[in-house]
Write a structure and sequence with these properties.
InterPro entries: MetI-like, MetI-like_sf, UgpAE/MalFG_permease. This protein is about 50% helix and about 10% strand. The chain is α+β, with helices and mostly antiparallel strands. A hairpin with a 2-residue loop joins strand 6 (about 220-225) and strand 7 (about 225-235).
């Protein structure tokens, strides 16, 4: 059975890698030479290096943390069950789940919903992206994405600021009819900001009509020589009052009112696709590491731990100098097993990476499949890639076998 299932496939793959795509012509090492000069292979190899350097260490560390902490919480068994549960999900299902999690639209994708939520806490969001005044009206572009009055305005003036181009999704859900501002004080400037648009046509441009909508939350500034000397935000009826104006100023609507809002991160774009897939992989395998390390932790003699505590060691010192050294054989097995697994990673990369990012996320196993079965039909090159992948995995496999023999002895 070993010869049929293991030895023969390895030997045949090595032999097949020495022939051309159809298997008719012997080409020697030409497939290997071509493999190491192909940019796609270099990308796949680079990504495999990233996987090996990051993923095994991250999975092992998280598994160790979970295993240690679950021994100290009341519902440790339930927590272990929840962390281990992703192992029951196939890579195909996990890939589909994370395609939704990484969706660019924050209304759909969980990751971007969290990112945009945090971003909005610390950043003032635009009120009406894409809006602006009518061409030729009182306001002109200021060169920075905002708008300002073409001429200075004296204190005590009323400056109406009609806007158009407000997207339907940004119109207030409970529209309020804009109201003319009250008479400005001698040291103030007042006005109204509203959506200068009447459904079905009609209305007078630049004047408030009963069917038009007030625009609350618009930031209005008073500028003197480019410096902000006063500002206010429009209320529910679109009115603003800028007080403390002691000379002619420019009334401006800064660019923050109109810039396109932050819509999240392109997790599956060419730049972040590999880290995003690694996070999905860690989500699946952290439970596996936790269970193995937890089993090793349960086998540690509690006498050594208690003796260290009696001698005055802190919990961190006990963990660092007692627990981790005693767990080193288990940690090594988990780490090496993860190296073997990530070198062969295929499913998540193939499913999660969209077509636009497939090349950026490419790994050796996916390249091998693409060359052989994904349209290339070059089984000589595919076999060469398979042999190369086998050689990469072989040292980790031999290391594990050596450790198993040492433990038996």
């Amino acid at each position: 059975m070993l010869v049929t299932l293991v030895v023969y496939p390895i030997g045949y793959s090595i032999w097949r890698s020495l022939f051309d795509a159809r298997g008719d012509t012997f080409v020697g090492l030409a497939n290997y030479a071509r493999m190491f000069t192909d940019p796609a292979t270099f990308t796949a190899l680079k990504n495999n290096v990233i996987w090996v350097l990051v993923t095994p260490a991250l999975v092992t560390v998280l598994g160790l943390i979970f295993a240690v902490l679950t021994e100290r919480v009341r519902w440790g068994t339930a927590f272990k069950l929840i962390v281990f549960m992703p192992m029951a999900i196939s890579f195909l299902a996990a890939g589909i789940i994370f395609r939704v999690v990484y969706e660019r639209d924050p209304q759909v994708g969980l990751a971007n919903a969290v990112v945009t939520g945090v971003y909005e806490v610390f950043t003032q969001q635009a009120s009406y992206p894409g809006a602006g005044p009518r061409p030729g009206d009182l306001l002109v572009e200021d060169g920075a994405g905002g708008y300002a009055t073409a001429a200075d305005v004296d204190p005590g003036s009323t400056v109406p600021l009609p806007l158009v181009g407000v997207g339907a999704e940004y119109v207030p859900a409970d529209p309020v009819t804009p109201q003319p501002p009250e008479q400005a004080a001698a040291d103030a400037i007042t006005g109204t900001v509203w959506f200068d648009f009447t459904r079905g046509g009609g209305g007078t441009p630049g004047e408030i009509d009963p069917s038009e909508v007030a625009l609350p939350g618009v930031q209005v500034q008073a500028l003197s020589d480019g410096e902000v000397v006063g500002q206010d935000r429009t209320d529910e009826e679109g009115r603003y009052v800028i007080e403390g104006v002691d000379g002619p100023v420019t009334v401006a609507l800064p660019a923050d009112n109109f810039t396109t809002p932050f819509r999240g991160v392109a997790w599956l774009g060419p730049t972040l696709v590999t880290p995003a897939i690694i996070l999905a992989y860690v989500w699946m395998w952290a439970g596996f590491a936790m269970v193995l390390i937890g089993a090793g932790l349960a086998a540690i003699s509690r006498d050594a731990l208690e003796a260290a505590r009696i001698d005055g060691a802190s919990e961190w010192q006990v963990f660092r100098h007692i627990t981790v050294p005693l767990l080193s054989p288990v940690l090594t097995v988990v780490f090496v097993t993860m190296i073997i697994n990530v070198l062969k990673i295929f499913d998540l990369v193939y499913i999660l990476a969209p077509g636009s990012s497939a090349q950026a996320a490419n790994v050796i196993a996916v390249e091998m499949w693409s060359v052989s079965f994904g349209g290339g039909q070059n089984f000589g090159m595919g076999s060469a890639l398979g042999v190369f992948l086998f050689l990469l995995v072989l040292p980790a496999m031999l290391f594990n076998i050596r450790r198993f023999k040492q433990e038996q002895q």
